[in-house]
Specification:
By secondary structure, this protein is an all-alpha fold. It has one domain. The protein has six helices and no strands. Helix 1 packs across helix 4, helix 1 packs antiparallel against helix 6 and helix 3 runs antiparallel to helix 4.
Length: 121
């Protein structure tokens, strides 16, 4: 999967599963349990959680087989989103989590940024 494909899939993840602020996914601050593993695959996610789920199918690193090409594509997708965030906010947000968690942010903002980052890739 290319970084651009990951970003588009991440936008779809948020549209399907919902958007979250304050953590990678809703419930990620809980102790590891089978329910937390389900949440890592299905609960609302932040922008980085959406990229992770789009890449790996889950926000949890449990059971992942790390392939260099997949890790690189995920990192490149994250960098493309950060460039988009920096360009669209005149550098006001130095990180994706700060941008995602800003009080004025909405799910639509995140979805649009992911799609623009993919298009500009």
């Amino acid at each position: 999967m290319t970084p651009e494909e990951i970003l588009l899939k991440a936008a779809d993840v948020i549209q399907r599963d919902g958007w979250h602020q304050g953590a990678l996914f809703e419930g990620s601050n809980k102790a590891p349990t089978p329910q937390r593993d389900v949440a890592a695959r299905e609960a609302p996610v932040c922008a980085l959680g959406a990229i992770s789920r789009a890449t790996w199918g889950s926000c949890s690193s449990t059971g992942r087989e790390y392939l260099a090409s997949v890790v690189a594509a995920e990192a490149d997708a994250t960098c493309l989103l950060l460039k988009q965030v920096e360009a669209s906010t005149a550098g006001r947000y130095p990180s994706i989590p700060m941008w995602n968690d800003a009080p004025e942010r909405s799910a639509e903002d995140v979805i649009l940024a992911l799609k623009r980052a993919a298009a500009d890739g």
